[in-house]
Amino acid sequence: MVSNSQVDNFHLSFMEDFLPVGMAILDRAKKGGASKVFEGLSSDNPMAKLRGEGSASAKLIRQKLDEISPGLGNPAFEVEVSETPPETNYYYSSDYDTLAPILRRIDDRLNLIKSHLDDPID
């Protein structure tokens, strides 16, 4: 029996590795036959070269497959999401002790300004 993760891994590998290479080989064969397929494959990494050539065609095929069934062309990845509880200890007594007198002074000055604005001009 094949596990689901093995099938998912095969699907991902097929869509990202084999499909672009296959599309490049197909495109080369259409353009010039067998001789065109083997042209330039004596380089250091012929698979990477083919994968690069076929990536645009493979992307189009994956998009069409996703239109048929989402995740068929571009496999979905499993992710683990966890929620980090927010910190609840925001109150620090030293911060309050420093801030409280400043806020009282600001409040007193705002009240003083308000009282001057409320007084009628003589």
Which tags fit this structure?
122 residues, 3 helices, mainly alpha
Plain-language structure description:
The protein has 122 residues and is mainly alpha-helical. The protein has three helices and no strands. It has a domain at 4-68. Helix 1 packs across helix 2 (46-68). The longest helix has 35 residues, at 4-38. The model has no long low-confidence stretch (mean pLDDT 82).
Protein topology:
Elements lengths: L3 H35 L7 H23 L24 H26 L4
Helix pairs in contact: 1-2
Topology as a string of helices (H) and strands (E): HHH
For the biggest sheet, the summary is: none
- What's the number of helices? 3
Using the CA coordinates, give the radius of gyration: 34 Å
The end-to-end distance, rounded to whole angstroms, is: 97 Å
Mean pLDDT: 82
Strand content: under 5%
Envelope shape: elongated
Low-confidence stretches: none
Helix content bin: 55-70%
By secondary-structure content and strand pairing, the structural class works out as mainly alpha
Number of strands: 0
